[in-house]
Amino acid sequence: MGRIEEDIERALRTRPVPSSTRARLRFLLAAHQGSTRRVAAVLGVSQRTVQRWVTKKSGARRPPGPPQVRAIEEAVLARWQPQIRARRRAQAEAEGFVFHTRARFGFAAPAGSSDDPRVRWITQYLPGEVARELFAARDAGAGEQQQTVILARALGHAYFREWGRRAHGLHIAFSDVEFADFSIG
Q1: How distant, in Å, are the alpha carbons of 15, 39, 110, 149 from that of 20?
Q2: Does one domain contain both 93 and 72?
């Protein structure tokens, strides 16, 4: 998962995801009505392994390894606040969102203008069409580069060309994203 996709996911949530592996396992158990068998099936491990991870006896407890920690994290992220995520996605697609970023911007412009790429802080409202395009690309499995192109095109139109009122024909280069944040609603 790329930086932009992580930031989109963060914007869709209203509460932080449990940070510790133990808290994530408790969440998965609660989501599956306490069934270690169902949690084991989701994570691709044995039921006994899940029981060892969640036991209260300190001598019997064994922490999951790095591959299992990643599987637990992915399972939690897939199940965390599904209704709220759907509602906030619909809101972003209908009303748009505010995009905050610090990245390197450059552009191809007519002779005599300053087109050298430089780091800029930009906070810009982007309409719902951009949100729909980003979500459609993400759902289709688009990578970080394609999502960056979508955002560069949208920022070029909204910020640099002021919604088509100036700088016609300006092509934006958006790279080296240091910071990106999406505000919905």
Answers
A1: 15, 17, 53, 34
A2: no
pLDDT digits (tens, 9 = 90+) for 125-180: 999 999 999 999 999 988 888 998 898 888 888 887 777 677 666 677 777 888 88
* Measured distance CA(46)–CA(62) in Å, rounded: 14
Whether residue 177 sits in one domain with residue 96: yes
Locate tokens 């209203």: which residue? 14
Q: Report yes or no on 65 lying in a domain.
A: yes
CA distance 179 to 177: 6
Question: Using one digit for the tens of pLDDT, what is the confidence trace for 20-47?
Answer: 999 999 999 999 999 999 999 999 999 9
